[in-house]
Amino acid sequence: MHDLEFEHLHVSAVDDTVNEVAWAADNVELTTVGIDIGSSTSHLMFARVHLQRLSTALSSRFVVVDRKILWQSPILLTPYRSDYTIDVDELAGFIGGCYSYAGIEREKVDSGAVILTGEALKRRNARAIADLFSEEAGKFVCASAGHHMECQMAAHGSGAIALSRGHTATLLNVDIGGGTTKFALIENGRILATCAIAVGGRLIVEDGDKGLTRVEPPVQEVAKSLGIELALGKPLSAADRKRIATRMARMVMGLIDLRQPNELARSLMVTETWPAGLANKAIDAMTFSGGVAEYLYKRESRCFGDLGSDLAEGLRHALAHRRDLPSVWDPGQGIRATVIGAAQFSVQISGNTIMIVDPDKLPLQNLPVLACDFALGDEIAPDAIASEVRSALSRADFEEGESPVALSFPWRGDPSHARLHAVASGICAALPRTIVEGMPLVLLIDGDVGKSLGRVILLEVAPRADVIAVDGVQLKAFDYVDIGSVIRVTNVVPIIIKSLLFT
């Protein structure tokens, strides 16, 4: 997989003529882990990620230039108890066994993510699962979830992003999992739009003579629309199973056409639908990932008592009878797409313009991010900055000074001393208890002013502040961050961005 749109170096070995210290100043190698706990299956993957400083002069930004899978686990059917909650103890044993089989020690893991996806998000103990694996899987591993985020991870991990960029093509990646189907529209390697619907292969599970052992609410809606009654302990006829799978396949096909969903499909959407104006968008090819894709590409033939093979057959039939559709490409990864994305695309690195007063206090974990929209005109009013910080605290229902938080904001305009001082004064005025009690004052800035702003705070505004000013970090709809320990020589820190969304 070679999907890089920027200049970079290939470093396979450092010979005797290369200064190893100089190489280390511009390169970082991290061992990462991705854990995917989904509606149907759970699995784990270890990877090694090589990040390199951009070739632009004096750049402090590091980007991924190489990714290598070190070990991947077998696929585990996500274990559920009789009350429909996920069995945390069995998952913990599975993860512990994976570390042993892979021969990787927990302390050797630098970064990664636990991803709760689809129906797993709805389990009553979802937060307990996230907390458990955040602690068990290594000190930088984060818990992360969210349908839009999973769409993006599947697009990356499946290989669809690489295909789109490599072929200068517009692709639609369709990731069909156990509880949801995620769509990502990709143009020249850039994701234009994502959406997801509660259609998946494991919304129903039937266990031989026991009849139906699992019936999820979304499939109940589909069955009701067909006049089919589903009940635990009762069998499902082959004809009714096919009718349900066919109706699900039609809803997926409607979204493949970039159409607005009908009433039933709209009720099953777990995100907003496609943005207006995409209906006539030309698509060069489609790619499929997720567990159901294994049946579509004929890499799997076994039946697990669910709708996986039936849904794949319904889609295969619909695709075969549509001459107007673009061709179908195999992106390379199916059921493991999300976990590959989790292991390889969840880390950012901030570079050499950071300010960290006390590096020994790192790492910091689970810092809530308060997104601020500062008015950064030519003249900046400190009172306005302070008011925005207080508003961000209020929106998040946080009491200032009770626990550390991270302020996130983009920097716009010149980094003049007057503008930096105004921002520093406003921030410190809004966080008096944080400063007095010696809590970390964490600033996450999209712009290269971290060190300058940190120095103004420390030397002129609040000398007692425990400043951690990290720049070059892009935050969007994420809620929590982990800030890793400083990586020596390069003087960078890994930033793990988390989105804990529990419905």
Distance between the termini: 35 Å
In this structure, how is the largest beta sheet organized? Answer: 8 strands, mixed
Strand % is 25-35%
Low-confidence blocks of residues: 1-9, 342-351, 499-503
Number of helical regions: 15
Got a strand count?
21
Shape: elongated
Q: Return the structural class.
A: alpha/beta
As laid out across the biggest beta sheet, the strand order is 14-21-20-16-17-18-19-15
Quick check: average pLDDT? Answer: 80
Evaluate the radius of gyration. 24 Å
Helix content: 25-40%
Question: How would you sum up this structure, described in words?
Answer:
Helices cover 31% and strands 25% of the residues. The protein is elongated, with a radius of gyration of 24 Å. 47% of the residues are buried. It has 503 residues and is an alpha/beta fold. Mean pLDDT is 80; it is low at 1-9, 342-351 and 499-503. It has 15 helices and 21 strands.
List keywords for this structure.
single chain; alpha/beta; 31% helix; disordered C terminus; 15 helices; 8-stranded mixed sheet; 21 strands; 6-stranded mixed sheet
Task: List the topology elements.
Blueprint: H1 20-26, E1 27-37, E2 41-53, E3 62-72, E4 76-77, H2 88-102, E5 111-116, H3 126-136, E6 141-145, H4 147-158, H5 160-166, E7 170-176, E8 181-187, E9 190-197, E10 204-206, E11 212-215, H6 217-225, H7 238-256, H8 263-268, E12 285-289, H9 291-296, H10 308-320, E13 327-329, H11 337-344, E14 347-350, E15 355-356, E16 364-371, H12 382-395, E17 406-410, H13 417-430, H14 432-436, E18 440-446, H15 450-461, E19 466-471, E20 480-483, E21 493-498
Parallel strand pairs: 1-5, 5-6, 7-12, 12-13, 16-17, 17-18, 18-19
Antiparallel strand pairs: 1-2, 2-3, 2-4, 7-8, 8-9, 10-11, 14-21, 15-19, 16-20, 20-21
Helix pairs in contact: 2-3, 4-11, 7-10, 12-13, 13-15
